[in-house]
Amino acid sequence: MPTDSCRATRRQLMLAGGALAVGSLGLPALAQPTPRVPAGYPGDYADVIAGARREGSVTVYASTDLEVVQPLIDGFEARYPGVQVRYQDLNTLELHERFLAETAQITAPPARDAALADVLWSTAMDLQIKLVNDGYALRYQSPERSGLPSWAVWRDEAWGTTFEPAVIVYNRKHFASTHMPGSRSGLARLLQERAPQWRGKVVTYDVERSGVGYLLAQQDARMGSEFWYLAQALGRAGVRLSASTADMVERIASGELVLGYNLLGSYALSLMERGADIGVIAPRDYTLVMSRVAFIARHAPRPNAARLWLDYLLSRDGQSLLGQSTSQLYTIRTDTDSAHTANALAERLGYALKPISVGPGLLAAQDALRKKAFLARWRQALKG
User: Fold this and answer.
1) Distance between the two ends of the chain, CA-based, in angstroms?
2) Regarding predicted confidence, which is higher, 230 or 1?
3) 3-state secondary structure at position 61
4) Which of 174, 231, 258, 309 lies most in the core, judged by the most C-beta atoms within 10 Å?
């Protein structure tokens, strides 16, 4: 997983490259060919496109790695020449706190060139829903809404964009002569048995540093007491904690770690398809499925470009490009040409998938007293 300094350098290179491309043309954005309104969109959508081209760019704060989303960015900029994507690749908590800090400084409608987010796109579903509930989102009736499942949209403000299971990932070599359990209770028993030899070789999210890690753990706890039994077993095995899915999966693939719990399956399945000696198990008791949630900032300096980006992200073309990314994100739509759709995932992993709905049910996770109590119990459980 790239460090923050690597991400910053990458962002700077991306922005510099975009500026160079425009400069080499020597043409203003509006001198380029006018994009056509997508089929099935309302006729007045031409006004959104024209407004976006006048704005010239869209700033996206996201927790999805740049290399994963690059095909989507390229497709968007090719579809809408003159509208540059300024992509900020951030940790979920950094994204949340930065947005709040910047928004608190707004005292008047921001200028078109203001260095503020137009769109927020994050794996921390509960943090996103809290921002929407607190009035930070712009309501927008996207023409792509009919292509999404009902559980993935809330108030035309919060939009689920992917379909990503939380799975158990393991290194096959370590399990050559051991049966890999398919449930949480089975995993807890195995960890109890192997705690001495696996000490420090098991990993899960650091729920205090990772927004998606906290979300998944909190949802697990709502499903029943088995989670706390498993958390204690993880503690006895000297579990390592990380805020990066990619880092955890790669260390399991290298053999440094034996297995990981509650990791996002998109990364693991992609690496496995590229030949990594790892296995992926969707727990048969239930498999949580999260979705990267996007919304348009209420004070977006470039609201038309924000609408354009959101619609492209939700469209069949945009979703297909997400499925072609390096991590092959499974898409929330089922009508794309991609092999990486929600339906394909259900057929591959089984049908015990439990999507986390985009909506007010996530607000309880961000109640301050509940969160404090949850984290205290988590720390205690990890003591074994």
Assistant:
1) 29
2) 230
3) strand
4) 309
